[in-house]
Structures are given as structure tokens and as C-alpha cells.
Amino acid sequence: MKVFDVAVIGAGPGGYVAAIRAAQLGMTVCVIDEWKKDGKAAPGGTCTNVGCIPSKALLASSGLFEKIKEEAAVHGITVNEPAIDVAKMMARKEKVIRQTNDGILYLFKKNKVEFFNARGSFVSQCDDGYILAVGEPVNERVVAHNVIIATGSVPRQLPDVPFDEKLILSNEGALSLTEVPKNLGIIGAGVIGLEMGSVWNRLGSEVRILEAVPSLLSMADSAVSKEALKIFTKEGLKMQFGVRIEKVETEDNRVSVTYKDSEGKLQEMWVEKLIVSIGRVPNTAALDGPAVGLKLDDRGFIEVDEECRTNLPGVWAIGDAVRGPMLAHKAEEEGVAVAERIIGRKAHVDLTLIPSVIYTEPEIAWIGKTEQQLKNEGREYKSGQVPFAANGRARASDETDGFVKILADAKTDELLGVHIVGVCAGELIAQAAQAMAFRAAAEDLALICQAHPSFSETVKEAALAVNKGAINL
């Protein structure tokens, strides 16, 4: 049996990054991952294959289509009525996925990481660490002194409503439609629901979203939620909140959803396709953790300490398989940190400073505390909010929806939270992440010179507004 210093189970964002960093630090490393596409190895996990990367490809295509259709005339550009070729759009998406898969395989080769395209699971403990099974088609055993579990998550199903990926879709089916449905139902107004709803709404589908909680994006700042709802409604998304799903059935190549609305009245919705996006659950069942005594909690997450150690010596777990936000960049940070810890280095991941982004149009991004959280904690704070309509670059680009909102401690001026709904929010939030990582004050952010004209100036203006010094407001 081959012996490795580190074996990583899972080649998603957390797993492949952990493997590369461990190899850079001088360890012998293997990665075991079963993803395949068209018979070829497809490392990158859910994010690359049926998540972050393909959804951004479709958002880019559908966004371009909408701009040509709805906004070209404003710029003095005359075009014939545009049409979407869904097959070509999907082919482009697949090309982007394959480029990313191949890029990861190249990085494994470059860093001398041995890759097994198969399912990995525990067999037993041994004197050298752990014996792992490398399943079909390899059917091998390997020994690892350390194991990093990075198996990610899978979509949560409605009770007794399995995904068939034809009528009732998970994120995977939602990313693989062969034509624009006349009407599309979505259960769940989270990140996946909003992004997929945006894609197909832009391309002409009538989209209806049903959400169980009483408001949009309850995890976001309430000002952002209200603004986003206003914009999405203007764009044509139809949303209902406080909904309880009673029954989902398929008939005559359509889907019927029976539900109770917020007033308790029974309603029925018929759609051509139904996307179910009600969250994700850890992908830990196939690990055969009981073979070595791996401890899971009652929701299937692997129990870890603050440094991602499990209850087993030399076994670590990261990403969606453990506590914390289910975000690719969180998994990447944990992967690097674990590789560093294995050789005895100090490493740091602050789960309170993980930015969240929704890639709708406009984008939504936030980091740190919301205003609701600060009120509930009884913490004194001050805020500054500036609309993109006050920004010259936004006006020139016709991207004036939304705002930047900054929250800071009332006494120390330390940044506590930054919330953005608007153009390039996913890029602008990086300013906030960097500033908050260094425990900067709102004044610090306000004193930084931003290029003019740029969308970034709105962040500076909001920081100025915290202390009543905004210039263009």
C-alpha cells in the first residue's frame, strides 16, 4: 500500500487547496475524489461542476442578453430583437467547467499531488495512521498519517419529493435546462433560488418563488433585504413569503405545488419546472466514519474544534462538512489553515469575517454584523448609508440601483458590518473584508484615496457618512 503524509478526501475548493498547500509545505499528498464528467475526471466539487462556476457562467450569459435586449437603446445602440440559443449558452458553460477541472488537474501534477478519481472511505486505523479505501475503478488501499475530509454538501430534498432532475430540480438540474421554461417555480429564496431565478427570468421565463420565512434574505441586513425585494420585484420576479408547502406532485409533464400562504389560505401553483433550493446537508454518509469512530452531530456534520480537528488524532475536516457558513471561500481558508497546522504552524481563520455574496443583478454582499444583530446585542453603533445614485461612475454606467451601508461602533468607530446591494458588490466587499481584518475604523476607510470615477468611491462615501462627513450626499 502507498503511504502518504496527507490524504484529502474530496477535491472541491477546500480539498484541492488543502492538498496543494500541504504539498507546498513538503508533505507527500494524495487526493481522492469521484467526480466525473463525460467519463473524465472532474475535480472541483459541487462549486466547479454544478455550483459556483457554472451558475456564474449562466448569470454572465443571461445578463448580457438582458442588457442587449433592455438597455442597448439607452446607449444609442440599435439591435434587432435578440434571441437566446440555450444549447450554445450551455456549451459555453460546460467549456468553462472543463477549463476549471483541467486547471485543477494541472495544479495537482505541478505540485506532485497524486490524484485518485474514485470514492474514498475509511477502512480502519493502523500504526501509521489510517487505511483508506479507494473505490471503483481503482480498488486500492492507501495509508495516510493525516486525513483531511473535504466532502462538501448535497442539496436538501423536500420530504418524500426526490429530485428527478427533469421536472423537480436541484441546483444541478437548474443549471442544465435545455430550453427556457414558460414558467418556473422555485422553493427557497436563498442564494441558489435567487441566482437561478434571475438567470431564467432574464431569458423570458415567468418565475415564481415560494419562501418559508416571512421576509426576503432574513440573514442579511434588513435595509438590504427591503432594497433587494424592491429591485427584484421591478425586474419581474414574483415572490411569496411565509409559505408552507403541503404537497408537490407531477402530472402531464408539469409540476403542481400545493401550499398555504402567509394567511393560511390553501393555494396551488402549476409550473413546467420546479427548482427546490431549501439548503444543503453535509455529504458525509459515504465516508464510513463508524469504521474508525468518527464523530458526527445529529445533523450529519463532522464535529470539529475551532482548528478543524475531529475527535480522531490526525483526522481533520473542513468546508461544508463542518460548522460554519457553507461557502467555497470559507472552505479554502480552512484547507490552507489545516495544512499549516499539520506541520505545527500557527494558522488563523475568523469565521465572523467571511463575506457573503449573491450574484444577482444588482449583486448583494455583506460581512460582519447586521443592524438587527447589533440591536439584539444591545451594542451602541452608528451607521452611514450612501446610494449608488450619488456616484458618478454608477450614473455613467446606468447602474444606480442600491447602496452601501456601513455600521461602526458608537464609541471606538471600529467597523462592525458592511452591507452592499448594487453594482460590483461582490468585488467592493473585499475593501470591507480587508479593513475589518485589520480592525480598522470607519475613519480609516474614509481616509483612503479612491480612484475617480469608480464604484469604490461609494464605499468611501459611506464611511464618511458614518461620521456625518459625506461629500456627495
UniProtKB/TrEMBL annotation:
GO molecular function ontology, one term from the record: flavin adenine dinucleotide binding
Keyword Protein transport part of the UniProt annotation: no
Cofactor: FAD
Top-level taxon of origin: Bacteria
Enzyme Commission code: 1.8.1.4
Main location: cytoplasm
Any single GO CC term annotated in Swiss-Prot or TrEMBL for this entry: cytoplasm
A Pfam family assignment: Pyr_redox_dim
Catalysed transformations (reactions): N(6)-[(R)-dihydrolipoyl]-L-lysyl-[protein] + NAD(+) = N(6)-[(R)-lipoyl]-L-lysyl-[protein] + NADH + H(+)
Intrachain S-S bonds: 47-52
Protein family (similarity comment): Belongs to the class-I pyridine nucleotide-disulfide oxidoreductase family.
PANTHER family: DIHYDROLIPOYL DEHYDROGENASE (PTHR22912:SF224), DISULFIDE OXIDOREDUCTASE (PTHR22912)
Miscellaneous notes: The active site is a redox-active disulfide bond.
Entry protein name: Dihydrolipoyl dehydrogenase
Organism: Turicimonas muris
Organism ancestry: Bacteria, Pseudomonadati, Pseudomonadota, Betaproteobacteria, Burkholderiales
